[in-house]
Amino acid sequence: MAKKISYLHFYFLHQHSLVIIPHTAMAHRVAFLDFVALALCSTLSLTTEPANLQDFCVADGNTNTRMNGFAYKDPAMVQASDFSFSGLHIPGSTANAVGFRVTPVFVTQIPGHNTLGISIVRIDYDPWGINSLHTHPHATEILTVMEGTLEVGFVTSNPENCHITKVLKKGDVFVFPVGLVHYQRNIGYGHVVDIVALSSQNPGVIIVANAVFANLSLLVSGYQGNNLSSQCAIKVDLMKCFDSVNWNYLFMMTGVTGFRMCYLN
């Protein structure tokens, strides 16, 4: 007759795993639980910014010390002004080629949120202004529309590359997962304002167009002759890339970003 073994069931939400441990293996069970607890704590510590060992670490702007974050001042020297910022109600100037402006509230603006793992920005958009394709390598982003109508979207990673998009109105909230390429675009005829919170004191930003075209010499060096100057050796047939193309909008955006019309024919 087979020996009957009772089991203790332990459920972990970590990576949707189910761990079943024999009741009879007492010593191994205890050791295994210690190992799992250590693994879970180690994993969680890698997915967030370092936790404080004191109440706060107010950034010290008067030191040249370099570290992961900012050097902090003596707590005895901390003041209320280190934890506050005024001006987020003031519209940012959108007098630029893309018609939008970011007003950041990072450690530079509020030294007291050094090491706290958060930041916030205000974004203003002119009609048809666009915050073009970009990504934040260090942070998840949550956006709340305060005024106007805003189209937002992000693209999932390979191999799906799925485009997730939605039109937001005043009071709507949208989340952009960490690291994914995303954008915002004012599709109305009025001003748009949104407030964005990010899960890092330094979310970072990579603008896709800048990353690809910032150094054209790398792209064209193989196409240069002895007597030829650097030229852009890129041609895109948009009709083959997309199901439909809004040519009026495309020409308008390429014009305001400095492309000459002769390159678009």
From TrEMBL:
Gene3D superfamilies: Jelly Rolls (2.60.120.10). One of its GO terms (molecular function) is manganese ion binding. The keyword Mitochondrion does not apply. GO terms for cellular component: apoplast. Its main location: secreted. SMART domains: Cupin_1 (SM00835). InterPro entries: Cupin_1, Germin, Germin_Mn-BS, RmlC-like_jellyroll, RmlC_Cupin_sf. May play a role in plant defense. Probably has no oxalate oxidase activity even if the active site is conserved. Belongs to the germin family. This is Germin-like protein.
